[in-house]
Recover the amino acids of this structure.
């Protein structure tokens, strides 16, 4: 491959291309060649009457995305499987070490530490996020004058995310001059060290994660407005109280959205990185998130092989937990359109 | 066929447009040159700049630094280009994430020919560099070559030194009737403690401290300790010297001679020194000098680091093992590190980039602030302990965080006697990895 690239390189060099373009041209030539090959292949299929002209056009149009996906997502993923079986210090060539990286993990105390940090965060913050954003959505769904202003206000924090959010909260949680401790001091309480305390840095990160519940709130709001009014009217006629209406009408109707939010929040929580990165794992590794530990290994400690192995273990963990949540969904998620399916029957079976 | 050629043409057009957009980027390609031998078997080319006529082509050179430091380097580079008109040096000034970018370029096969590298980072990158030959006696201190070597091979040519000295607030000394320390002989650690006590006064937001919080990375050497055994195979944090240094640091904290964790949180100690709130600033590197030009409120000066402590950072120039124009690159390295002109440009830079590695050029550094004792820096550049380097520095630093987290040096409560051996043991485990 390298030989091919350098021969394309010298070809353009011979043509007298500007030096600034030279590193890019082999790359673009190869991409163009891939598209060309794809085009020719579909043409051949059409000629041989294996594929209809319109189908071929469809594939040609989506090929831009497909090629990008294959080259820049699937390709690196497959390469990282290979790398995970090697010792690769990036600046030298990879050496095959078999399962060594995976074996090291079992003796690596920081691996366990990062796992427990990540699980702690996921288990506490995801339910909090789901409940809080749903509760806010219920409030924001009230038909009041000026409710749109409140919706906007509750959504606004979502616009400050990632590094910017973390910078903001490092100041909010500053033990001396931060907003939180200043308020506590007014109330006569001496606040903890937050990000500089091994015990309080994780609670601080969890509190921080609730800052962005506005994003999920919008999704719930959309779901809430989809619930037919007739269901509530029927409940009214039966004399249901407000809380009964939430339990028997709102919750079942919105359960697919709850499910969606729970799954995406959970995957997001397992992949938390910025919070750990910005305070370098926190005091005593108290916020050593798995994704940050992976990054440390791969990009700071020159252990690309071990980092890749960690990444694949995280992938498997997320896969297992997502599968578990999907399995459990048969018990609590109600799909109106899912008539007569297996899941529907199970839902009925659990009801008295 | 018509349609076919249309598609081919449009693809070509798109690729040209895209490449035109990317043309603003720095390229890091080396044009191939007429110079036939690119292997390192020709040491004659690396000796001196006499062979300038036969050198041609392009040399790519990557470095990090602030604007002022880049200015110093650019000046030295242009004097090289004047001496070698056929060689073009393409500079890659990398302002952020230098090591990560270097790593990516090396892995991608587009490593620059010449790379600036600090002694501390050298072990991690040595496998991407070519061994060089040098006569250690040309430099101001023959040990400079050692701090750029691994297992007996020199992987980067010493280029600039950044030692540590101590800045003092002269007015504060006079006000408290403390005699000024010697400009050439370091005070003892006991004297430092004594003076700190005399300089500390006041309470609360206007309290004046004897010193800024002490850093183990400097003070361990003041107590005769070091981080690793001489052969770099073992951590010596469990040695009595290291523990004595740690206890000293804890004592200055507990006696209130330095700002505590709450007081220093989010504060710049340099600013505090400039504001006259700190009597002695021990972690003072050349990069602090430009700020000192603004000091108007009080007299200041520089003295050697107490107890011969502190550590100097030596930065060197390394040659990529994949360099396509190695002869010119070697000549460039030799010029930058061993010609008086380049070294004077580096040392004489008004923003104090660092101390030149050539003894004949250190005078240029001392004239930046003629009325201050910059000689202290030059002495430290010769004598100070060099930064200790390990291949797995980043991983070790991560274990070293325990010192701050668990002992009173930082926010912890455990005894340093207990924690240091534990940390040493964890570091030893990292060192045992192959």
């Amino acid at each position: 491959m390298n030989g091919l690239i350098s021969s394309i390189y010298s070809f353009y060099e011979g043509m007298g291309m500007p030096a600034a373009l030279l590193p890019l041209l082999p790359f673009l030539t190869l991409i163009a060649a891939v598209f060309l090959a794809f085009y020719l292949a579909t043409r051949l299929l059409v000629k041989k009457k294996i594929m209809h002209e319109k189908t071929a056009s469809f594939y040609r149009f989506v090929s831009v995305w497909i090629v990008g996906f294959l080259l820049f997502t699937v390709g690196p993923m497959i390469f990282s499987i290979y790398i995970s079986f090697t010792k690769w210090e990036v600046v030298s060539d990879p050496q095959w070490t078999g399962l060594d990286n995976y074996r090291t993990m079992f003796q690596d105390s920081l691996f366990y530490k990062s796992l427990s940090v990540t699980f702690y965060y996921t288990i506490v913050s995801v339910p909090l996020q789901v409940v809080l954003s749903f509760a806010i959505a219920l409030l924001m769904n009230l038909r009041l004058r000026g409710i749109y202003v409140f919706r906007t206000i509750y959504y606004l924090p979502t616009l400050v995310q990632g590094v910017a959010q973390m910078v903001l909260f490092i100041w909010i949680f500053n033990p001396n001059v931060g907003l939180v401790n200043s308020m506590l001091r007014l109330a006569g309480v001496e606040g903890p060290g937050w990000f500089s305390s091994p015990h309080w840095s994780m609670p601080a990160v969890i509190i921080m994660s609730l800052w962005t519940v506005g994003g999920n709130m919008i999704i719930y709001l959309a779901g809430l407005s989809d619930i037919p009014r007739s269901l509530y009217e029927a409940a009214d006629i039966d004399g249901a109280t407000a809380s009964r209406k939430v339990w028997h009408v709102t919750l079942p109707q919105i359960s697919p959205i709850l499910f969606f939010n729970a799954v995406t929040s959970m995957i997001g929580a397992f992949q938390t990185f910025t919070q750990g990165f910005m305070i370098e794992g926190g005091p005593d590794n108290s916020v050593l998130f798995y994704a940050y530990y992976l990054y440390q290994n791969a990009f700071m400690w020159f252990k690309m092989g071990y980092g890749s192995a960690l990444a694949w273990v995280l992938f498997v963990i997320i896969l297992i937990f997502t599968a578990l949540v999907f399995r459990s969904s048969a018990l609590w998620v109600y799909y109106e359109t899912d008539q007569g399916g297996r899941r529907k029957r199970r839902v009925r079976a659990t009801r008295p | 066929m018509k349609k076919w050629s249309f598609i081919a043409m449009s693809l070509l057009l798109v690729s040209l447009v895209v490449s035109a957009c990317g043309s603003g980027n720095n390229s890091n390609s080396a044009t191939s040159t007429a110079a036939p031998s690119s292997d390192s078997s020709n040491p004659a080319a690396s000796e001196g700049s006499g062979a300038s006529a036969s050198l041609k082509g392009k040399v790519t050179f990557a470095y990090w630094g602030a604007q002022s430091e880049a200015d110093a380097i650019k000046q030295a580079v242009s004097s090289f280009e004047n001496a070698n008109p056929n060689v073009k040096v393409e500079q890659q000034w990398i302002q952020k994430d230098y090591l990560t970018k270097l790593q990516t370029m090396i892995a991608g096969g587009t490593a620059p020919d010449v790379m600036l590298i600090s002694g501390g980072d050298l072990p991690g990158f040595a496998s991407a560099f070519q061994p060089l030959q040098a006569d250690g006696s040309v430099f101001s201190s023959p040990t400079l070559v050692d701090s750029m070597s691994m297992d007996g091979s020199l992987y980067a040519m010493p280029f600039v030194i950044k030692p540590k000295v101590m800045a003092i607030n002269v007015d504060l000394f006079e006000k408290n009737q403390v005699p000024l320390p010697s400009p050439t002989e370091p005070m003892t650690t006991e004297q430092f403690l004594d003076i700190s006590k005399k300089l500390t006064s006041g309470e609360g937001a206007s309290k004046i401290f004897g010193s800024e919080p002490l850093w183990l990375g400097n003070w361990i050497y003041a107590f005769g300790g070091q981080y690793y055994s001489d052969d770099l195979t073992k951590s010596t944090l469990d040695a009595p010297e290291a523990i004595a240094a740690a206890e000293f640091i804890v004592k200055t904290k507990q006696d209130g001679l330095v700002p505590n964790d709450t007081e220093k949180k989010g504060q710049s100690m340099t600013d505090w020194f400039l504001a006259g709130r700190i009597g002695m600033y021990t972690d003072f590197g050349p990069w602090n000098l430009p700020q000192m030009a603004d000091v108007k409120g009080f007299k200041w000066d520089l003295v050697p680091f107490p107890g011969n402590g502190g550590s100097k950072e030596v930065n060197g120039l390394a040659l990529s093992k994949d360099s396509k124009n190695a002869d010119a690159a070697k000549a460039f390295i030799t010029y930058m590190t061993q010609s008086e002109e380049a070294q004077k440009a580096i040392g004489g830079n008004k923003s104090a980039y660092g101390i030149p590695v050539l003894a004949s050029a250190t005078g240029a550094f001392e004239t930046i602030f003629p009325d201050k004792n910059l000689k202290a820096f030059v002495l430290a550049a010769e004598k100070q302990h060099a930064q200790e380097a390990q291949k797995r520095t980043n991983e070790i630093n991560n274990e070293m965080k325990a010192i701050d987290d668990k002992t009173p040096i930082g926010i912890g409560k455990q005894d340093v006697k207990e924690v240091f051996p534990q940390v040493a043991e964890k570091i030893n485990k990292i060192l045992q990895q192959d």
In short: The two ends of chain B are 60 Å apart (CA to CA).
